[in-house]
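Predict the 3D structure for this chain.
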Amino acid sequence: MTSTDQHVAEKTAIRRLFRGRLVLPDRILEEGHLLTIGDRIAAVAAGPGSAADADQVMELGDGWLTPGFVDLHVHGGAGADFMDGTESALVTACQAHLRHGTTALLATTTAAWKEQILAVLALCRRYWNCPQKTGLRILGVHFYGPYFAVAARGCHPAAPMRLPQADEYAAFLEFADVMVTASLAPELPGAEAFARACLERGVRVNIGHSQATAAQVMEAVRWGARHVDHLFCAMSDKTKLRRTQPYPMRGGVLEATLLLDEVTTEVIADGVHLSGDLLKLALKCKGPDRLALVTDCNRALDLPDGEYRFGPQEGGEPFRVHDGVALTLDGQGLASSVRGMDWMVRTFQRLTGRPLWEVVRLATLTPARIIGWADHLGSLEVNKLADLVVLDANLEVQQVYVSGELAWKNEKLTPTRR
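Done. Predicted structure below.
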């Protein structure tokens, strides 16, 4: 685009001015303004700004303006799972999370058979970063299973879990352009070769659903693994490992994650998976730059209690939602969450008492940094994409903007048009 073309585009682009409390990465700007021009943030400053510069003025009142939420680990919503492998399921899941303030996500797979996973990879390649089709940005795929430890499978189906084999994962890595992260249990035979193959193709490596010792985690970090999935959940710890070796006690994935500064991690802050003391411990050990909020949400988001299926409709694992909690059919384990990112933000703040700017950072800038998108997303900064969320005083989502365009609203806030 020439400078003349850019000037014309800026003149014709919609200019929106937001006035009120802005949630920045390190503080709240109590009386500030943010101006968007087209799909970008053009100005962030104190004071009310000039209405003469805008086509539309949004008075936030007692609400807040935050960056759009970024979800690194999400399976579905509103009855759809990304593993269903259809365009309608993909769009339905994206639209469901858009309503909860998520503007960018990694479509997360489950333990499944080869052709099912390949179908999802191909589908997400077609919809990569196309918010005009999905409502929000699919930044890629979180390849999540089948290379997990059966003993740490959580709510994943056991049948398709298997060891990494080069002839199989070579087919998956044909989609390395859309695979942002790949999770594995590092203790499995073949895990190192798979991890190194991922890293060679530019795919980040996570540790998840693992019974590894701390020593095995440290070895995986030497391979290049840098992130651990849903801290405290479906992972080894000293108590579990003591069953196979009474002494000396050994650390597991849990202890290694808290110990290693090289490793980032994530928590499911739905108030069901983890208590407030565990959330505080995670934040104290990892800090706001190495801890992200994720939803790990299944297809039951915004649906009533009942029986559903985790993963693909064919071969997925049945689970039951009771009193708003997803459980395995035996009632002994949790089966992912049924909440959106707005719920995670509200719950983390309520249980930890941390300042809002810090909690929002865990749902925006930190996850964006973890997957290499922080130059474009995750904070209210000039030249970043205008992916924005308007929250009310109770932190309920009122409006969501993607690329500067209103993508969802609940009609509570009404913009003023000039």
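Confidence is low (pLDDT under 50) at residues 414-418.
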